[in-house]
Amino acid sequence: MNDHGIDAETTRPGYRRVLLKLGGEMFGGGGLGVDPKVVETVSRQIAEVVASGAQIAVVIGGGNFFRGSELQQRGMDRARADYMGMLATVMNCLALQDFLEREHHLDTRVQTAITMGQVAEAYIPRRAIRHLEKGRVVIFGAGVGMPFFSTDTAGAQRALEIGCEALLLAKGVDGVYTADPKIDPTAEMFHEITHREVLERGLKVADATAFSLCMDNRMPIIVFNLLTEGNIARAVAGERIGTLVSTPET
């Protein structure tokens, strides 16, 4: 048993269809623009998942190019700033699509919540499901297409609408901690925790809207370190990595 009363040897069930949420900041390697090394690492791990027979969709943030909330603080209209952020996510989607197709010869489709027919399909849930059933990787861009909603919320909403079994939150840390482990060296990691406890403790994992959506619909979330090679495939296969956030049946 670990400190939180969870048997560390328990194996989680594998998943048939998942949604992977990637932060834009990670795509930029901590800087502005796209870091090819990070995109290659991510695309290689996604290719592993596809080779295993599982279906994977992806939502990417745009923070490596643009953050609407920061420009709002400088006086820009929030809605306009958010739309600019949505466009930034599409650049990341196209970068990932290129690496998946060119380096790993995978069939992919980019679907966007804002119509831009020359570079991507419009978001149509049933079409996205059909792509997944055919073994294609579907990459969702432009968030949910509305201001005031984060790409975390887009990840939760898309995962629910296309029938995913889990939402994978890829981070730069190993899981959910009692505090920020980069600041507090005494922070402890949870192996399992409930959605409600994350919200009540105010743990900074994803925004509250995304967590509430998952809690209300019992969508499990796995929070794990993207930078550990092979972690995406391990999460999909049900290996015990990171933190499992779930709501038990009542």
Automatic annotation (TrEMBL):
It comes from the Bacteria. It comes from Pseudonocardia yuanmonensis. One of its GO terms (molecular function) is kinase activity. Homohexamer. InterPro entries: AceGlu_kinase-like_sf, Asp/Glu/Uridylate_kinase, Uridylate_kinase, Uridylate_kinase_bac. ATP binds at K21, L22, G23, G24, G63, R67, Y177, D180. This is Uridylate kinase. The gene is pyrH. Catalyzes the reversible phosphorylation of UMP to UDP. It catalyses: UMP + ATP = UDP + ADP. The keyword Transferase applies. It is found in: Cytoplasm. Residues 17-225 form the Aspartate/glutamate/uridylate kinase domain. PANTHER family: URIDYLATE KINASE, URIDYLATE KINASE PUMPKIN, CHLOROPLASTIC. Keywords: ATP-binding, Cytoplasm, Kinase, Nucleotide-binding, Pyrimidine biosynthesis, Transferase. UMP binds at G62, D82, V144, G145, M146, P147, F148, F149, S150, T151. Gene3D superfamilies: Acetylglutamate kinase-like. The lineage of its organism: Bacteria, Bacillati, Actinomycetota, Actinomycetes, Pseudonocardiales.
